[in-house]
Design goal:
6-stranded antiparallel β-sheet, Jelly Rolls, 1 helix, 120 residues, disordered N terminus, alpha+beta
Amino acid sequence: MLALLLVAALVIGLAVNVEAFLSDYSHQEGYFGADSLQAELLPADSHVLGTITADNPFSVYVVVSDSGYFEGLEGGRVVMKWENITKLNLNITVPDDGYYLVVKNGNVSQEIRIDLSSGR
């Protein structure tokens, strides 16, 4: 009986830990049209790890927007950039609010895979 209770407690503990991890994890596979943009607000005061991959070139930018929303690459300050790549291993620290991760597809429509996790 004690062993059964111990196993139940262990399973419940693992389920809670997996749920907490998954809330800070994002997986997206999307079809991007030529020259299209996608912006994701990054959590403030966090460390973001991940990979972004595609078969054809794309670009990734970290943009700071003082207005509180993403208004395009021209309206914000680009603080990091990776251009014309097919894979990015992301490892950045986000200090404040208003940081966006922007994926800009190249001139060929394609699927782009984005896997990100964040922690404090």
